[in-house]
Amino acid sequence: MGMLEGKVGIVTGGGRGLGRSHALLMASEGASIVVNDLGGAWDGTGSDDRAASETAADIVAIGANAVANFDDVADWEGAQNMINQAVATYGRLDFLVCNAGFVRDRTVFNMSESEWDSVIRVHLKGHFVPTRWATAYWREQFKMHDRPVNASIVYTASEAGLFGNAGQPNYSAAKAGIAALGITVAREVERYGIRVNTINPRARTRMTVNTFGADRMTADEGAFDVNDPDNVSPWVAYLCTDDASDITGETFVCGSDQVQLMQGWKREHRIRKGNDRWTVAELAEARAELFSSRRQKPDR
Questions:
Q1: Which pTM value belongs to this model?
Q2: Are residues 56 and 138 in the same domain?
Q3: Which range of residues forms the domain containing residue 86?
Q4: Could you tell me where the DSSP H helices lie in 155-232?
């Protein structure tokens, strides 16, 4: 018996890459999966039902349960339909893995409005809208049964959002927003028995190959493939198990052979004048103390 036996979950972007790995592993652990994928290209253009359908068929082939869903994760009615499909098909919903997305890389001074809007939409809104409908469903279950629902949401951010990545201002901003959204939603829904955590995966996908190139993402023959998407999925699956019911509001970097627990904005150093307002000249003098914990003095 797997660690997700009897649970029902949705994996967005589940037709390819990381989402497909998550869906297959979670199904092998006993979960029934709604495989959502619009089937677009790495830049979000087009649509193709085959991606979600093939992953769902592969899950059924191993003796597990799965259905395909082709809704747009950032569409209000589409995301609601996704939640409704899970409940109508399997009678319940236990977890939501938000993974769908694409990139349209450009430096900020060359980026078009549509390149900004489309990436923010699929990543940030595409996490919010399914969350909105899933949490509304779980809140109603909480009120109906008068007990915590024991549900899990896993968000997919990126180290581009944690640390920034030149050439990806839209993607980095969206992913930073996802990390902040995860912390906030975790606080809002904890009382209902819903936990929310965020992963920042390191893996070879269509997006990362497009950004970094295939050579950097491919392992030497016979070597451990540090960029295999399958390396990320076990932690995603674990976060949806009952054993992880005490983990919420956390952010992780995972991939290769490691899981890293991250800590967000943290005060590095502070200067205080003492019950009086600083002048600009005084701050110019005091800045060395402010940056004293750094090895090198920052450029002006």
A1: 0.89
A2: yes
A3: 8-262
A4: 159-163, 169-189, 206-212, 214-217
Domain count, the chain: 2
Alpha helices in the chain (DSSP H): 17-28, 50-61, 76-90, 113-120, 126-145, 159-163, 169-189, 206-212, 214-217, 233-239, 280-290
Please indicate whether residue 171 is annotated as part of the active site: yes
> Is 287 in the same domain as 187?
no
The domain that holds 232 is classified in CATH as 3.40.50.720
Tokens 């085959």 identify what position? 50
Q: Which of 21, 32, 155, 175 is catalytic?
A: 175
**Digits of tens for pLDDT over the chain (300 positions)?**
899 999 999 999 999 999 999 999 999 999 999 999 998 665 666 667 899 999 999 999 999 999 999 999 999 999 999 999 999 999 999 999 999 999 999 999 999 999 999 999 999 999 999 999 999 999 999 999 999 999 999 999 999 999 999 999 999 999 999 999 999 999 999 999 999 999 999 988 765 555 555 555 565 677 789 989 999 999 999 999 999 999 999 999 999 999 999 998 888 999 999 999 999 999 999 999 999 988 654 444
Kindly state the tokens that stand for 156. 């997919």
The answer to whether 175 is a known catalytic residue is yes
155 part of the active site: no
Annotated catalytic residue within 137, 155, 171, 192: 171
Torsion angle of the four alpha carbons 126, 127, 133, 135, in this order, in degrees rounded to the nearest 10: 180
| DSSP helix/strand/coil, 151 | strand
Task: Characterize the bridge pairing of strands 251-255 and 258-262.
Answer: antiparallel
